[in-house]
Design brief:
Number of helices: 23
Number of strands: 8
CATH class of the largest domain: Mainly Beta
Helix content: 25-40%
Radius of gyration: 31 Å
CATH topology of the largest domain: Immunoglobulin-like
Distance between the termini: 107 Å
Shape: flat
Largest sheet: 2 strands, antiparallel
Length: 543
């Protein structure tokens, strides 16, 4: 009995000692306490206490301000170390919105590792500081963002025309005059979200007597419109999104309901739980951003069975794409907090990408057909045709291009962009067709009324001997595209088929069969006609 009493006494003392140690550690040695002890305001040292931002509408209760005190409500004048600096000027007040709604992390935590979400059980780690603007994607859907090349041209036009002499954009520009004057024009940092006067050019011309202003060409005014429409006080995110719209990703992946179905939906890829992937497969410190970057470098190395080919991108481009993917997150918001751009995208169907042909082609088509349509080869996949080649464009009509984009190629990877959910609208398809014509200075082929005069039975034998090795015994496709395809056969003219077989297509494996070669037999014009006649026997509904 006495031994049990001693055991109870010792265990009680042990528990009491642990409670005392915990109380001392909690009340004297917490990191946030030492940080606050160095903070000052106009009245002297600030009171050391647990601080937090609570916003019931956003379901936010963040204690981040226990360390970042100057971001707490009413404490913007606090000074001290680096952690006590006030938040940079942004559209939203962090003392109202809190921190985790934009930055991620664990708002209820009070030590650095837990608060930043760098613990194995927390599904929403903090976004890396260098990519902090990715948090804007939680609520916003930036609209009409062009491809990267057009974005560069637009920015260069704004600076080349010396608009920064009068206007400020994200802390750049706005000339300071003697006596404190200057910056005659308004700050343009947020006009893409707030809107701007569409008649600005005419008003600038009318005000020449007050400010020096040279005329601006129509092309430059269009570029300025692109630049201004993307000024939403988040330039790094816009730049990253422009790179995404240059990489062909929408050809395989959906974002916000628009895009292809070959790959997984990316609409919430930035919310991926780090606990659901093997972060050790990515080099460096384990992180979701590192895993995403490695996925762009070598997809199959981090995702077993991935069909996404290694694209051979530069590290700069990978960093930009990682930035954008981290921005792909969503938060259910009350109506009072829903941004206009998200509302316009969700309710009015406005696009997050620009409607020009160059951007549409880069976003939807270049992933398979290559930049500017030069074609692409990937290990383990059939070669994707070069639809930007002169040989191709000079032999097809605009109707052929439109119908093939709209209806796709059944049985192949080319989707029916004009008929599928999340596809392209008629005006967007026309923009892509116009882009291909303008970019490659190719005119539409004349209508061909001359039908093939060959013999189908002869053509069948010739096809088996000369064509089936690449196009398949039944025209199902292989190294070459599928020819037993109803969209192709119903839109391609006999002229197109004759010219492609006889003359070939430069830059591809398709050589002209009218020309001698030691690797294959040469065909005569009548034999080419017979192959075309045989191909027509596959066309359904043809008399």
């Amino acid at each position: 009995m006495k031994k049990n009493k001693y055991l109870l006494l010792i265990s009680s003392l042990g528990v009491f000692a642990l409670l005392v140690a915990a109380a001392v550690e909690e009340n004297f040695f917490k990191e946030w306490r030492s940080i606050q002890s160095s903070a000052r305001n106009e009245e002297g040292p600030v009171p050391v206490m647990l601080r937090q931002v609570v916003n019931p509408s956003l379901r936010v209760a963040d204690r981040c301000v226990s360390c970042h005190v100057s971001m707490a409500p009413g404490e913007q004048s606090v000074t001290g170390g680096a952690l006590l600096k006030p938040h940079k000027n942004v559209v939203h007040d962090p003392s109202d919105y809190g921190c985790t709604v934009c930055h991620g992390g664990q708002g209820s935590a009070t030590n650095k590792e837990d608060a930043h979400g760098d613990v194995h059980f927390w599904p929403s780690p903090m976004i890396p500081a260098r990519m902090s603007y990715a948090g804007c994607g939680t609520c916003h859907a930036t609209l009409r963002v062009p491809n990267a090349d057009l974005m560069v041209h637009a920015r260069n036009a704004f600076e080349r025309l010396d608009c920064l002499a009068c206007h400020r954009v994200e802390n750049r520009g706005g000339t300071i005059r003697p006596g404190g004057g200057g910056m005659e024009g308004p700050d343009l940092s947020r006009v893409g979200a707030a809107g701007y006067d569409a008649g600005w050019y005419e008003k600038h011309l009318a005000a020449k007597w007050k400010i020096p202003f040279a005329g601006v060409s129509a092309q430059d005014r269009e570029l300025l419109g692109v630049y201004l429409s993307t000024r939403v006080a988040a330039s790094p995110l816009i730049e990253a999104k422009a790179v995404f719209h240059s990489s062909g990703c929408l050809g395989c992946h959906k974002v916000s309901g628009t895009g292809g179905d070959e790959g997984p939906d990316l609409s919430r890829a930035g919310e991926k739980d780090p606990g659901q992937v093997n972060l050790d497969l990515a080099p460096g410190k384990p992180s979701l951003g590192g895993w995403i970057s490695e996925h762009f470098r070598a997809p199959s190395s981090v995702t077993a069975g991935s069909q996404m080919p290694a694209m051979g991108m530069s590290e700069e481009r990978i960093a930009q794409l990682t930035f954008y993917v981290l921005s792909l997150r969503r938060r259910d918001l009350p109506a009072a907090y829903t941004p206009k751009d998200r509302m316009r995208a969700a309710k009015l169907g406005e696009r997050e990408f620009s409607a020009d042909g160059a951007t549409l082609f880069a976003a939807f088509c270049s992933g398979c057909h290559g930049p500017e349509g030069v074609g692409r080869r990937a290990p383990g996949m059939p070669a994707f045709p070069a639809i930007g080649s002169e040989d191709f464009l000079s032999r097809v009509s605009d109707e052929f291009l439109t119908e093939n984009i709209k209806r796709g190629r059944p049985g192949r990877r080319m989707p029916n962009w004009g008929e599928k959910e999340g596809g392209l609208r008629p005006a967007e398809i026309q923009s892509i067709v116009a882009y291909l014509r303008e970019k490659h200075e190719a005119t539409s082929a004349r209508p061909d009324k001359e039908k093939s005069s060959g013999e189908p039975n002869v053509g069948k034998q010739l096809f088996a001997a000369a064509c089936s090795g690449c196009h398949g015994a039944k025209g199902e496709g292989g190294e070459g595209p599928a020819l037993n395809n109803q969209v192709l056969l119903s839109t391609a003219t006999d002229f197109y088929l004759r010219e492609t077989i006889g003359e070939g297509r430069r830059g591809t494996a398709m050589a002209g069969f009218l020309y001698a070669s030691p690797a294959r037999r040469t065909l005569g014009p009548s034999e080419v006609e017979s192959i075309v006649a045989f191909l027509r026997t596959w066309q359904k509904g043809k008399p």
